[in-house]
Amino acid sequence: MNLPKRKLGSSGMEITTVGFGTWAMGGGDWAFAWGPQDDAASLSTMRHALELGINWIDTAAVYGLGHSEELVGKLLHELSPSERPLVFTKCGVVWDPKNRMVPGKRSLKPESIREECEASLRRLGVERIDVYQFHWPDESGVPIEDSWATMSKLVSEGKVRAAGVSNFDVQLMQRCESTRHVDSLQPPFSLINRAAAESNIPWCASHHTGVICYSPMQSGLLTGTFTAERVAKMPKDDWRRNAAEFQQPNLKNNLALRDSLRPIAQRHGVSVPAVAVAWILAWPGVTGAIVGARQPQQVDAWIGAANLQFNAEDLEEIAAAIQRSGSGTGPAQPFAEAPQSDQETSHRAKA
User: By CB atoms within 10 Å of each CB, which of 4, 155, 185, 227 scores lowest?
Assistant: First the structure.
């Protein structure tokens, strides 16, 4: 399958419009786990995603407290250099190995960033990280300019190819930009959580900063099979049990929005998850969507998003469904256009 690609800002990289996310592959027994996960299934699922044409994997040091990166490293080891995907990972969440269930501290201290980078390089088994990202804004009190200067040094030293941020607002990105260009932003963005479209994505489009969105299916809510009963059956270490969007009345509204996507999916001959992800990709300024899966067949369910294009009527129907459901917050329909950006030179290929 030939998947369309878009330029990741001005980084020089072209990435498929859908990438593979490995949060759940960290397994259970840590603060933000998705419950137990079989490593063999994780490796099989990643292989399947690459076979379908995906050319990048997004992970983070904190996913499974290093375990997700180790699995990605194992996958890379079995592939030839020409077969290897681009690998994006993150730093800035420091955990206590003696107490896995305590949330990590958000620290972007320069010495910590460098230590975390070296640890990620070892776990991944690579000499250079393609995109290294600050996972969250710092809570330790260090100025972001000092943190970003360290990231810039990692790039100049050849340990990092491109430098990105995750969960940053425009003000923080502007402060980073004064020291070094921000190559990419990773915000949460879905039909339910639409806040990134208000200012973050337009800012990135006008600054040649790539945007790779996470949780486009709102952590499973926008899949075609999720039910209210499933929440009660989730493992105790699944973070979603206590998340606001999985609680009433939000849950009812969110599932109503999900159900409203079914007629659109049927018209286009795709799945509901594919519609949810394709809506993200329809926004000017968005480079790609990070989509997770725990089994190969789950990849098959959403891979069609990469080649799905909506017409104006589709987008209006989805916007009306958002308003009717009362689900989430933020703009309900993609803007007609965004400020001119290198990202807009995207190309499509037939599946």
Answer: 227
Instruction: Pick the catalytic residue from 20, 34, 63, 95.
Output: 63
At residue 345, the 3 state secondary structure works out as helix
* Domains present along the chain, CATH in parentheses: 15-327 (3.20.20.100)
Q: What is the pTM of this model?
A: 0.90
CA–CA distance, 328 with 124 (Å, rounded to integer) = 36
Q: Cα(326)–Cα(329) distance, rounded to whole angstroms? A: 8
Which position has the token pair 């990419």?
184
Tens of pLDDT, residues 105-114: 999 999 999 9
Number of H helices, E strands in the chain: 12, 12
For tokens 């969960």, the residue is 167
Question: For residue 14, what are the CA distances in angstroms to 6, 153, 337?
Answer: 5, 23, 21
**CA-to-CA distance for 307 and 310, rounded, in angstroms?**
10
Residue 132 is among the residues annotated as catalytic for this protein: no
Of 181-195, 212-226, 299-313, where does mean pLDDT reach its minimum? Answer: 212-226
Q: Are 227 and 281 in contact (CB under 8 A)?
A: no
**Which residue has 């049927």 as its token pair?**
266
Nearest Cα neighbor of 142 from 113, 117, 168 is 113
